[in-house]
Amino acid sequence: MTGPHVLYVAWGFPPARSGGVYRALATANAFAQGGAQVTVLTAERDAFERYTAVDPALEEHVDPRIEVRRLPFEWPAREPDRSRWPLARRALPRVWWHVRKRLDRIPFPESGYGPWRATLESAAREVHAQRPVDLVVATVNPYVDLAAPRVLAREHGVPYVVDHRDAWQLDVFSGRRTHRRGSRVDRTEKALLRGAREVWFVNEPLRAWHAAHHPGAAGRMHVVANGVDAAFAPGPRLDPPAADAPLRFGYLGTMSRQVPVEAFRRGWVLARSRSPELAGATAHVYGWAGHYAAPDPDTPVLTGEDGVVLRGPVSRTAVAQVYEQLDAMLLILGTGRYVTSGKVYEYMASALPVVSVHDPGNAAADVLRNYPLWFPAADLSAEAVAAALQAAAHAARITDRATREAAARYGSAFAREAQLRPRVQALLAGVSAATGRAPGAGSAGGSLSGDR
Questions:
Q1: φ, ψ dihedrals at 172, nearest 5°
Q2: Where residue 444 falls among pLDDT bands split at 50, 70, 90?
Q3: Measured distance CA(354)–CA(366) in Å, rounded
Q4: How many CB atoms sit inside 10 A of residue 75's CB?
Q5: Which of 333, 339, 340, 399 minimizes the C-alpha distance to 372?
Q6: Please, which residues have CB within 8 angstroms of residue 114's CB and are 6 or more apart in sequence?
């Protein structure tokens, strides 16, 4: 194997089930398919099983040429086994939390993940010593992932890319800064972005915000949007449901604290009460309640009433079969002009009517604006949500095949591969020119994981 050596850093990598894992999987695969030798640094499998839950089938989709190195990771604040809690936490939980957060931030300014810095840096050095690294790509959050590119850049001049799929200093829902200018986080981020070969963002509002706050790096910032993954994409539904069958709406995704569950519930109940086309309709909710393995008591949940059916988590590898059972999609998102969500691309690929239950200013609206079967709620009032649901129900019944085909074509333009390919090719070409190691053909060799 003679291609450039790319070190890819992602705390969440298969079999993790966290939202960013799909982008991480696709990006690592894209570099491998582009002819690079790829080594992934990620957390150990047990960390996902203990703290965030897993989707084991995802591992089968990691390119077999990728070497995955799994590193020890402890997360005391998320420890689910109370028998392993220290006495101080049981006796003085608030004091323990305060002290724990301060301790976490000593190595790196990030609660929960800061102590992982030393492990990451050691692993990055080891990888580079065994086979020189030509490029590091780190996807954040968590932002401690950036410790690996930082140490190799400082010690060996290795170029790196920051995949800023979230925001460290911006609350994407409220639009407020989360760290003051000049703070340790601000200084750390500024230095890391200033030294990056490229900085990626999932949408233009996020890129623009960071460009304004870090103008020295603005010229190297790119939008690399999420997209639908070919391996998991639903097939387009081009035929209407049976005339005598009640409509089936569907939501796929994580229910977090920011999701306007109550706004949807009020609109759903109102729409079902007054629309003959929604008589007997059901709303099927697939996914996790909260981001962690342990239940979050503050996460809003829907109850199995008023035609709502709680389906629970579904493997990413099985979502295409779920879409085959649905007639319209529910895009229920937290408020924020910086919020896109990865599921919007998958929804469009289905060619089904999509009901947006979120603030009209969300970045997701920019993606959906020209989708032929988009039905946005004008606001989050019960009346507005009900009107959008009724319009989508009508469309599900009467939309002709030509319109559905147009929706499918529009959705297919958002393939994740198309979003990644230009940046991956440009980076590999640049690294190859600097090192003389041209991308290889990518013969099927090497192990899938360093623990195999």
A1: -70, -15
A2: very low
A3: 14
A4: 18
A5: 399
A6: 104, 105, 106, 107, 108, 144
Locate 356 and state its tokens.
């947006």
- For CA atoms 235, 239, 242, 243, the dihedral sign is positive
Q: What is the mean pLDDT of residues 84-90?
A: 90
Distance from C-alpha of 311 to C-alpha of 49, rounded to nearest angstrom: 21
Scored b (16 or more CB within 10 A) or e, 109-138 reads bbebbbbbbebbbebbbebbeeeebbbbbb
Instruction: Tell me the pLDDT band of 83, cut-offs 50, 70 and 90.
Output: confident
pTM comes to 0.88
Report pLDDT digits (tens) over 264-273: 999 999 999 9
Across the chain, mean pLDDT equals 90
Phi-psi region of 16 (alpha: psi -120 to 50; beta: other; left: phi over 0): beta
Q: Which of 96, 93, 115 is nearest to 47 (CA)?
A: 115
> Which DSSP state fits 203?
S
- 8 A C-beta contact, residue 202 and residue 165: yes
Q: How far apart are the first and last CA of the chain?
A: 20
The whole-angstrom separation of Cα 148 and Cα 123 is 8
Other residues' Cβ atoms within 10 Å of the Cβ of residue 25:
27
pLDDT tens, 310-344?
Answer: 888 888 888 889 999 999 999 998 877 888 778 89
279-308 residue pLDDT tens: 899 999 987 665 555 555 555 566 767 899
Q: ∠327-328-330 over CA atoms, to 5°?
A: 145
Q: Distance between CA 272 and CA 260 in Å, rounded?
A: 19
Length of the chain: 452
Whole-number Å distance between alpha carbons of 417 and 139: 17
Q: Alpha-carbon distance 356 to 375, whole Å?
A: 6
Q: If residue 261 lies in a helix (H) or strand (E), which one and from where to where?
A: helix 261-274
Domains and CATH numbers, the chain: 5-227+415-435 (3.40.50.2000), 248-412 (3.40.50.2000)
Give the C-alpha separation, 7 to 5, whole Å. Answer: 7
Question: Which pLDDT tens digit goes with each residue over 22-65?
Answer: 999 999 999 999 999 999 999 999 999 888 888 899 999 999 99
Q: What is the DSSP string of 324-351?
A: TT-SEEEEE--S-TT---THHHHHHHTT
